[in-house]
Records
---
Amino acid sequence: MRQMFLIAGKDLRLRLRDRSVFIIGLAAPALLALIFTFAFGDALDLSGGGFSATYGFVDLDGGDAGAALADVLEGLDSSDQFEVTDFPSASAAEAAIEDDEISAAFVVPAGFSELVGVQDTAIEVIGNVDAPTGSAIAAAIAEAYAVNVERVSLTVGASVAAGASPDSIPALVQAASTQPPLTHLGDLNTVVRQMDGPTYAMAGMAVFFLFFTVQFGVAGLLEERRFGTWDRLMSAGVSKGTVIAAKAFVSFVLGIVSMAVLMLGAAVGLGANWGDPLAVSALVVMGVLAATAVMSVVAALAKTVEGAGNVQSIIAVTLGLLGGTFVPVAGGEGILAKLSLLTPHAWFMRGLNDLAGGGSISLVVPSLLAIGAFALAATLVALWAFTREVAA
Amino acid sequence: MTNVLDVDGLKRSFDDLVAVGGVSFSIEPGEAYGLLGPNGAGKTTTISMVAGLLESDAGSVSVAGKLMTTKSSDAKRAIGLVPQDLAIYPDLTAAENLKFFGSLYGMRGASLNERIMTVLEMVGLSDRADDRSDEYSGGMKRRLNIAVGLLHEPQLLILDEPTVGVDPQSRNAILESVEGLSSRGMSVLYTTHYMEEAERLCDRVGIIDNGLLVAEGTRRSLVDSIGQDDTVHVTATGNLHHVAELLRAVEGVVTAAEAHGVVSVVVDRAAIRLPSILATFTEAGVSVVAVEVSEPNLEAVFLHLTGKALRD
C-alpha cells in the first residue's frame, strides 16, 4: 500500500507540474460552460426556471372569440413568467418583434368570431427568431386555444343538429366553454425536473472533460514504459498490480478534484443549484469511477501514450456527445435518446436533473445503478486486458 | 563464501527464437563480472531474468542465496538495476528521482537525503541535484541512471550496456564510477559489446554468443586459451567479405572476419604474415586504407571462438 501511495504521489506531482491537467480538468470545462451559457442558455434551459417571455396581442376581431383569447392571455400576464402587451395592429406587433421587445405576437383576424365553425380561419402567431422557446410556447398556447374553440363549435353544432332550440344555444356555449381545457399551462417550475441553463452547461462540460482528465492518471502506465521506469519499478520489487492501482488512484483523485472544483465553482459563481449534496457526491464518485474504468481499458490495450490519447479522445467525445453533455438528447423517444442511455454521461445528467427539483439520494438510485454497472463492466474488461498483458 | 549471484542453466525462448540457450555463471562478493558479446547475443535477456523482470523457461537464478523470480521481492532488494535504456523521470530533478526510488526501497528521512548526496557525488552530479533531468546532457542522464541503481546499496549492481550512445568524456566518467564499486565491496554484473570496457572493469568475463556462454574466465586466462596469436585490423574499401574468405586460406591465419569496413585477422605471428595478408587484399582488388596490429585481447578471443567480430 505504501508503494502505491508513493507512486501515486509521484504521479500527482508530475501532473501538477505539467499544467495541462489544469487546462483540461478545470479551465476548458469552465470556459466552455460559460460560453454555452451565454450562447445557448435559452435552448439549454428545459426547466422553465428563470424563463420569461413578453407577448403581443392584436385583436382585429372585437368579437367573443377574440375576447376569450384575451382572457387566456390575461391569465398568463398574471404569472411571473409572462407579460402581455396589446398592440393596435399586426404591423405594430411585428415592429416590436423586430426590436426584440416581444417574443411573439398573437393576431386575431377581423371576423374571426363570425367565421369560426363556418369557414376556415386562424389565429396568427408571429414568432421572434431570436426567442425560439418563447415563440414555440406561444404557438402551443394558440393551438390549445383553437382546439378549445373548435370543441365549443362542435358541441353547439351537434346540439342544434339533434334538435336543440335556438334559445338554448347561449347556455350550450357557456357549458362547453367552461369545460376544463384540454391543455393546461401549469407552473413549469414544479412539474418539470430539469437543471437550469447554466447548471446544465456546467454539468455537461464537467462530465465531458472528466473523461479527458482521468486520462492523466491511467496514461501514466504507458509513460512508465516510455520512460523505461517500468522495469526499474519491477526490479524494485513493486508488483504490477500496485503500479496499476496507483495509476487508477491518480485518475480517481484528479477526477474528483476536477468535478468538485467545477461544481462548487458553478454553485458560487453561477448560482447553480445541484441538489442534495450526498446524492450529488454519490453521482460524482460513481461517474469518476466509470470514467477511470473506461480509460483504463484503453490504457491496458494501447501500445503507446499517443495511441492511447487518440483513442481515449475519440471515446470521450463520442460518449460525451451521445450522452447529451452539449445538448440534451436523453428523455425523448428517438433512437438517439435510447442510445444515449448506453453512456454514463446520460445517466449522470439524468441524475442531476432528477435532483434539480429537490429530493434525496433515493431519486438517483437508477442513475447510480446504471453508472455503476457501466463502471463494473469497464473495470472487468480492463482487468482482463491487464491480466493478458501481464501474462504476455 | 556464498556467491552473490548463481545462474544455473538459464534458458529462454521467444516463440521459435532461442534467446538464451542454457547459461550458467556465478559472481563472488566484490567481484566485477562482464558479459561480453555482440548485439543480439542474449545479454539483455539474461540480465532480465537475473533481475527478475522475465521468467525463465528453465534454470534458476539465486541472488545472495535467495531464489529470484519475477515475484521475489527479497531477492530484488539485493540488486540494483541500471537498464540499457534510461529509466528516470524527465520532469523530476535528480534529487527527486533518487528520493522517489529510494522511498520504494523503504529508505526515508535524513539517511535517504545523505545517501542521495553520496551517490550524486559518486557519479559527479552533486552540483546539479536540483536540476530537472530533462535539462541534462545524454551522458549526465546516464550517470543519474547509474546513481538510481546504486542508491539502496545493493549487493549486486547490474549494468546493461550503460555506455551505449554516450560521448567519450561521459563514457569515461561512467567507467570511473563503476571502477570504484568493487573496492567498496559491491559486486557488479556488467554487459557490454565493448571489449575495452570489459578488459578495464571486469575481474572475470563471460563471452556470450547466440544465447550460449562460449567461454569464461579472467582476461589473462581467456587470452591464454587461444595462444599468443596477434590480431591484424585492416581498414579497407571494397568487397571485404570476400577478402575475409580468402584470408582464411592464408598460411598462419587462424580466422578472419569483416565488420564495419574493418577486416580483423587473427594470425600466429603478425610480423611474418603481414606481407601475405596485404597481398591477399591486393589480389582481391581491395584498397587498404590503414593497418593496425594488436596483441592478443578479448576481441581476438571472441573472434577466435565465434569466427565473428565482436561488433558484428
Note: The longest strand of chain B covers residues 17-27.
---
Amino acid sequence: MIMQKKEIIQTLTLIFRGTFGQPTLDLRDDLTANDVENWDSLTHMLLITNIENQFGFKFKLKDLNKMKQVGDMITLIESKLDIHPL
Amino acid sequence: MSDFFVNILKPVIDNIEKYSDRNAFCIDGVFFKYADFGKTISKIRQEVKKIGKDVTRIGVVGNDDLETYASFFALWLENKYYVPLSPMEPIDRCLQMINQFSVTIILDSSHLSVYPENLIVPTNQLVFSKIDLEYENRGSEDDLVYILFTSGSTGIPKAVPTSRKNLLIFIESMVNEAYELTFEDKCLQCNNLNFDGSVLSYLYPLLFGASIYTVPHDQIVYSYIYGLLENHQLTTAFIAPSTIRYLRPYFNEIYLPALNYCALGGEGLSLDLLNEWAKCIPNAIIDNIYGPTEFTIYCIFARYNRSDISVNKAYNGIFHIGKPFIQTKILIADSENNEVPLGVHGELCLSGGQLTQGYLNDDEKNATSFFSKKGIRYYKTGDICFVDEEGDIMFVGRIDSQVQIYGYRVELGEIEYYARKLLNGLNVYVTAIENCIGNMEIVLFIESGPIDTNSLDTKLRQLLQGYMVPRQICFVSQFPLNNNGKIDKKKLIASLKGESTINEVA
C-alpha cells in the first residue's frame, strides 16, 4: 500500500516533535533549520536516522543537500516510498 | 627582510592585482573575484581610517560574507587587529566579552545588528569610492593580529592574543614544512571565525591567489561540505575529525579524486576513521595537525602513509601527531615541569615563535599555564603525550577537565559554573561522553530528584555556545563518592551507560 502524503506528514510531525523535544511543533513546507530551536548538525543526523528507521529506507548523501526545507523532505520521502511502497 | 607586512599583507595585496579576474571567494554559492575583494577591503579601510590611531582592538562580527573577510585586512592595513564575535554565540556572552576586553568599535555586516548602534560600523552599507590598498610598515612585530577566546572555568572566557610575529612564523613553517598551494587551488573554509583553524582556511589560500569556498552558518555543515567538495571539485580542506565522522555512514558514496590535500585537526583522530576516509580521497596528502590557540593554529603534524598503512602509528586507536615544526621546541614534562625520559607519559609543553604573549587580564591563569626553564618560555598544553623511539609524539589524553567538542576546546568547569548558578547552587557535575557516532557530547548530572529543566536549557543557550549546552541531563538523588570523598566520576558515567542504577535519566 502506498502511503498518502497526509500520512507522511503526520508521521514526520511525530518524528520532528520527538527529535527536537517540542511536543507542539507543527510542520510547514517552508520550515527550515533556522526556524526550529536545536536543529543543528547533530540533531539533523538524529532526525535523518529517525526518518530512515520509521519509513524503512536510507537517504543518499546527495539527498541530504536537496532538503532545503521541510517541503523538500516530504517530496523526497514520497519519491522514496513510490519506489519502495510500504 | 621578513615581517608581517612583507610576507603576509604584500602577497595578498599583490594577488588582488595579479589575479583580479580570478575567484577569491565562493560564499553561499556566489563568486567574488579578487578585484571585488580589493574594493571591499578599500571601502571598509576608508571607515577604519576614521577610527582614532590609539584604538587598535576592533570587534568584527563573524558573518559568512565578503565584508567580514575584508574587514580583517582593512584593520591590518591600518595597524589594528580584530576580535571575532560569533553571530551564533549568545549575545549576552558577546557583550560580556566586549566589555571585559574594552572593545568599543565593532565592524558589523549584519542586516540587523544586535549590537548597540553607537558601537557599530555597518560594513554592508558602505559605498566603494577608490582603491586604497597601499601599506606602510608601522608598529612592531609584537603588535597583535587577532584575539581569540577559549573556554574558561570562571565563566569568563580566556582571551588569547596572537601577534604578527606568531602568525608569520606559523605561515613560514607551514610553507616550508607542510604544504604549499598554487593559484589554481580551490580551498574549503568550514571553520567558525572564532576558531583559529579559520585563519588557516582563509588566509593561507589568499597568500597564493587561490579560491576559498565557505560554509554558510544556516546550513547543515557535514552535508554542505560534501556538496562543496564534490560539486566544485575542491582541492584542499581543513576539517575536524568529528565532521568526517558525520559523513562516515555515507563513505561508500564519497569519492573525491580532486582533493589534493586534507588537514584534519582540533581533536584526537581515530586511525580507523582515517583509514576509511583516506579511501574516499584517493589522491590527497593527509596531515593530522595539532596545536592549541595559545601556540598559533598548529605546530605539530603527522603525515598519513598511504602506501603502507601498517606504519601509521596510533596509541589507544588515536593516530599519532608526529613531529613539531623546526621552529617549535617541545618538552614532555612531569608535574614539576622537568623533562621525562623518552617513552614516559607527561604533559606536552611548547616553546617557540608561535607562542602567545599570555592571556589578557589574567595573571592567575598566566602563572599556571606558562613557565620558564633555562631561559625558555613554555606553554603547558594540558595534553598528556609521550615521544616514541622515532621521535614521534603520541597523544594520550587531556590532563584536566577540558574536552574537545566538535573541534572546540571546552572547559567543563565553565558549564558547571553556569548550571550551578542557574540551579541556585544545586550540586552538578559535567562530563563529555562519546555519542552513538563516536563524537563527544556534554552530559550534565544534577544532584536532585527530577526537576523541570526546560528553562535551564533555554538559559544555558543564552549564556553558552550551542556545542557547550548539555545534550543529556541526568538526575541523581545523591552523587556517589570515592574513598577520598570526591565525586566518583567513574560511577556516575557508568550509571549513564546503564552499568549501574543510581540515577534517573531525564
Note: Residues 499-506 of chain B have pLDDT under 50 and may be disordered.
